[in-house]
Amino acid sequence: MRIKSAEFIVSNQDVSKCPDSKLPEYAFIGRSNVGKSSLINMLTQRKNLAKTSGRPGKTQLINHFLINNSWHLVDLPGYGYARVSKKERKTFQNFITAYFEKRRQLISAFVLIDIRHDPQSIDLEFMRWLGENQIPFSMVFTKADKLKPKAVIKHVNNYLDKLKEDWDPTPNYFITSALKKTGGEELLKYIESINEELKA
Fold first, then answer.
1. Positive or negative: CA dihedral 27, 7, 80, 139
2. Rounded CA gap, 149 and 85, in Å?
3. At what angle do helices 36-44 and 184-199 cross, to 10 degrees?
4. Rounded to whole angstroms, how far apart are CA atoms 169 and 48?
5. Are 118 and 147 in contact (CB under 8 A)?
6. How does DSSP classify residue 31?
7. Each residue of 117-168: pLDDT tens digit?
8. How does pLDDT run across 5-54, given as a tens digit for each residue?
């Protein structure tokens, strides 16, 4: 899939105010500072479509982008560490939960994981919650350029081994680097294949 157009549509904290559209949606979410904005900008080939920041927790709203006039990319706030108050964090959690539970247009989520780290309980718990609520998702390992190829494979396998405790088969996954611009083509092909199935 080649992204020819990517347009910001709306930001909000209220799921009921998300676009009243029948277009399929794909939501991107992960721990703060996982490289989500950089990945979205790489996928869309836009430098500043999603706002990048050195400060974790920059994304604080449900952000809808219209891609190729045919589907929505949804940028969700990061979970876990963020320089916000407990009250704000609870607000994020509430509308993120509401989005996943109520948004019928959602086709699949992409859970972003920093490949440099060992399996994190917060990521595992979130994926378990998605599974329990029957929400389809794939893992997207980010920042693969930060490790040597053998270390990348090792870290991915560490995650898969951990996931096997709860999952059979293990979730689909992609390995990406926004810096090296790798992995995005495979991810977009996956979205395109789902969109084609939906048309059939």
1. positive
2. 38
3. 70
4. 36
5. no
6. B
7. 999 998 999 999 999 999 999 999 999 999 999 999 999 999 999 999 989 9
8. 999 999 988 899 999 999 999 999 998 889 999 999 999 998 888 765 44
pLDDT digits (tens, 9 = 90+) for 48-74: 887 654 444 445 789 999 999 999 999
Residue 1 within a domain: no
Domain that holds residue 168: 6-199
State the DSSP string of 109-137. EEEEEETTSPPPHHHHHHHHHHHHTT--E
Q: Are 41 and 50 in contact (CB under 8 A)?
A: yes
The domain that holds 185 is classified in CATH as 3.40.50.300
Buried b vs exposed e over 53-67: b needs ≥16 C-beta within 10 Å? eeebbbbbebbbbbb
Residue 120 lies in a domain: yes
* Number of separate domains in the chain: 1
